[in-house]
Amino acid sequence: MAPTDSPARKAAVLGKPVEHSLSPVLHGAAFRALGLDWTYERIETDADGLPGLVDGLGPEWIGLSVTMPGKRAALEFATGVTPRAKAVGAANTLVRKENGWLADCTDVDGVTGALRAAGGYRPLTGETGVVLGAGGTAAAAVVAFAELGLGRVRLVVRNPARAGETVTAARLAGLAVEVLPWSETDFAELAGSASVLVSTVPSEALHPHLDALTGARCLLDVIYHPWPTPLAEAVAARGGRLATGLDMLLHQAFGQVEQFTGRPAPRAAMRDALRAATGNILSLPLG
User: In angstroms, rounded to a whole number, what is the distance separating the alpha carbons of residues 82 and 262?
Assistant: First the structure.
């Protein structure tokens, strides 16, 4: 558990670029709601600079959020690694422990929380999920699928040779995995076969397939600006349920706050602060 008896604790988000990160909004709101006189900063660093930077932090630093491009470097730097961070192959969270830093991946919580709260998603054991794309967010999504109880994932990628890390994540999480080349995929069949669809690709890549994808029952589109995306509009018009990247951001922060402070996250206060900071474009339900 993180120490909570000192008024002079610090945390930060690390990344490059990092000036537009909304993490200070979330964590600042949490600290205020919890009555903690702690600070949360933005620190710009790339993957190569992350180990030296973290090594140089004093004992008052209790936790770090990590964004791109440092998530793999954070995993490799850490003294300890949670099973889900190992499965994803990346860490978005570093927590100070007595013997060093523990790496975790609360991005998994971001996916599960967004799907349950915003998407109203209640999967049946063994169902199939679909992920469009195979980057870092895709790896977190497939591990989240396993936590939700799904049994199988279908990955749709332009270059199957580059899907190796996400395939590994799925297998480590216990999922059966199928890789489909983008150019050969029947997107209508794909959407109809899935209990949940996660899109991690730019909106323009989906323009030719919008009609085919409208059959998705539950969509998590990791893009939230500008919102709604064309895919979200198309799915919503057919009665599908929607979750967004902003929902993901909110739900991944809850676990970070709890690991940094050792206290339950003040979810409503964090949600309200994020909603205000983003112009109230989304309701950000808590479930």
Answer: 17
Q: Which CATH superfamily is domain 109-246 in?
A: NAD(P)-binding Rossmann-like Domain (3.40.50.720)
CA 55 – CA 194 distance, rounded (Å): 44
Alpha-carbon gap, residue 1 to 33, rounded angstroms: 19
Residues in contact with 14: Cβ distance below 8 Å, sequence separation at least 6, in sequence order: 43, 44, 45, 50, 53, 54, 64, 65, 66, 67, 70, 74
pTM over 0.70, yes/no:
yes
Q: How many whole angstroms from its chain centre is CA 196?
A: 16
Using one digit for the tens of pLDDT, what is the confidence trace for 10-32? 999 999 999 999 999 999 999 99
Active site residue 86: no
CA triplet 108, 170, 89: central angle to 5 degrees? 60
Where do the structural domains in the chain lie, given as residue ranges? 10-106+247-277, 109-246
Architecture of domain 10-106+247-277: 3-Layer(aba) Sandwich (3.40)
For residue 7, name the pLDDT band (cuts at 50, 70, 90). low
Which of 16, 71, 86, 97 is catalytic? The answer is: 71
